[in-house]
């Protein structure tokens, strides 16, 4: 079955109404809907509309709070700690990163923020927010344990994604967003729903044996850390670092405690003028990117790309047209959700 074409505004409106049916405030519902649609626009379907089903379950069972009260627990000249009250989406982390941007500019240096008890979902938007403001940005979060240490079979850390954003002048910001695992949890879940096998080296069963059946993984299996099988210590080490920042340092749940506690987020922004005039730094970033793109290519390679470039192009192309293709799996998840929540589905546009 081919992808289904819908108008971006219709899709965003549909998802926002569905979140409102789950008792989210209008502003929060629109923000979360925009976050999911943005992920789809950039080609990350696993964190797009397909994630709605999981989020709806978390709201219904009380894991997520549809009406969180975000509060400041501590604030200094260069750091802030927020309590997210079991919320989800862009609310608290956007507020935290905006605070970092403003303070970093005032200080001509660096500002950091942590958020307790908040589901970040995607790290890139907040690193991108700093980069679009001309600063260097970083964001990370810890999640429910799914990864065992090399040689072990007890899950300690989650996918624990991290993202950075680097501004440039002629080029769009360089934005990297990666999990510290070979695959996201949602990609494996979608594979199970579609009765597809996963590639080798992505998942293990609960005993730590390599498997390709996502259904078996969902019975309590493990995800492979980034670098598996040659260097699993690399991904595991990065996951530990993210957990230390987002969980241990923030006062949120950490390691195995995230399963029964609250995840955390850690973000920072760095004003480049602490080191160089902004225009000079941006020009040097352009030169760095130019060197990458002008390098010699292997046979069959048309162009060399920097992190985030493919997704940015897709985003610009689709937003210019005002329409977006949805995979059959994403459409089915959306249709089921809208039916259960009495939310209107977006009209399908004929190709």
Brief characterization of the structure:
By secondary structure, the chain is of the alpha+beta class. Helices cover 40% and strands 18% of the residues. It has helices spanning 8-21, 26-41, 52-60, 91-107, 124-132, 185-193, 214-217, 232-249, 278-293, 309-321, 328-341, and strands at 4-7, 71-75, 79-88, 110-119, 136-141, 162-166, 174-178, 203-204, 210-211, 222-223, 264-270, 323-326, 348-349.
Topology readout:
Layout: E1 4-7, H1 8-21, H2 26-41, H3 52-60, E2 71-75, E3 79-88, H4 91-107, E4 110-119, H5 124-132, E5 136-141, E6 162-166, E7 174-178, H6 185-193, E8 203-204, E9 210-211, H7 214-217, E10 222-223, H8 232-249, E11 264-270, H9 278-293, H10 309-321, E12 323-326, H11 328-341, E13 348-349
Parallel strand pairs: 3-4
Antiparallel strand pairs: 1-12, 1-13, 2-3, 4-11, 5-6, 5-11, 6-7, 8-9, 8-10
Fold and architecture overview:
The chain has three domains: 4-64 and 324-349, Orthogonal Bundle (Hypothetical Oxidoreductase Yiak, Chain: A, domain 1); 76-181 and 228-307, Ribosomal Protein S8, Chain: A, domain 1, CATH 3.30.1370.60; 186-224, Wheat Germ Agglutinin (Isolectin 2), domain 1, CATH 3.30.60. The longest helix has 18 residues, at 232-249. The chain has eleven helices and 13 strands. A hairpin with a 5-residue loop joins strand 8 (203-204) and strand 9 (210-211). The protein has helices at 8-21, 26-41, 52-60, 91-107, 124-132, 185-193, 214-217, 232-249, 278-293, 309-321, 328-341; strands at residues 4-7, 71-75, 79-88, 110-119, 136-141, 162-166, 174-178, 203-204, 210-211, 222-223, 264-270, 323-326, 348-349. The strands form three sheets. The protein has a seven-stranded mixed sheet with strand order 2-3-4-11-5-6-7. Strands 12-1-13 form a three-stranded antiparallel sheet. Strands 9-8-10 form a three-stranded antiparallel sheet. The mean pLDDT is 96. It has 351 residues and is of the alpha+beta class.
């Amino acid at each position: 079955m081919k992808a289904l074409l819908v108008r971006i505004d219709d899709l965003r409106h549909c998802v926002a109404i569905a979140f409102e049916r789950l008792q989210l405030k209008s502003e929060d519902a629109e923000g979360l809907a925009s976050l999911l649609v943005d992920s789809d626009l950039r080609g990350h379907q696993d964190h797009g509309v397909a994630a709605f089903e999981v989020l709806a379950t978390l709201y219904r069972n009380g894991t997520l709070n549809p009406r969180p009260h975000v509060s400041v627990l501590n604030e200094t000249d260069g750091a802030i700690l927020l309590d997210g009250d079991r919320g989800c989406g862009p609310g608290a982390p956007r507020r935290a990163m905006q605070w970092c941007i403003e303070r970093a500019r005032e200080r001509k240096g660096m500002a950091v923020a942590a958020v307790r008890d908040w589901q970040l979902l995607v790290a890139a938007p907040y690193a991108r927010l700093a980069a679009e403001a001309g600063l260097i940005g970083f964001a990370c979060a810890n999640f429910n344990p799914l990864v065992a240490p090399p040689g072990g079979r007890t899950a300690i850390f989650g996918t624990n994604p991290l993202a950075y954003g680097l501004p440039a002048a002629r080029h769009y910001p360089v934005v990297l967003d990666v999990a510290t695992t070979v695959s996201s949890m949602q990609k494996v879940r979608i594979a199970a729903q579609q009765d597809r096998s996963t590639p080798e080296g992505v998942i293990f069963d609960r005993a730590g044996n390599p498997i390709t059946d996502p259904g078996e993984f969902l019975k309590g299996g493990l995800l492979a850390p980034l670098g598996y099988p040659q260097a699993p210590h690399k991904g595991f080490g990065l996951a530990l670092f993210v957990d230390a920042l987002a969980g241990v340092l923030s006062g949120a749940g950490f390691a195995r405690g995230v399963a029964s506690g609250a995840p955390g987020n850690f973000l920072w922004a760095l004003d480049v003028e602490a080191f160089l005039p902004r225009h000079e730094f941006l020009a040097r970033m352009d030169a760095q990117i130019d060197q990458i793109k002008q390098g010699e290519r292997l046979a069959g390679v048309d162009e060399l790309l920097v992190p985030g470039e493919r997704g940015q192009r897709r985003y610009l192309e689709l937003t210019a047209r005002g329409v977006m293709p949805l995979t059959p799996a994403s459409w089915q998840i959306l249709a089921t959700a809208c039916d259960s929540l009495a939310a209107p589905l977006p009209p399908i546009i004929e190709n």
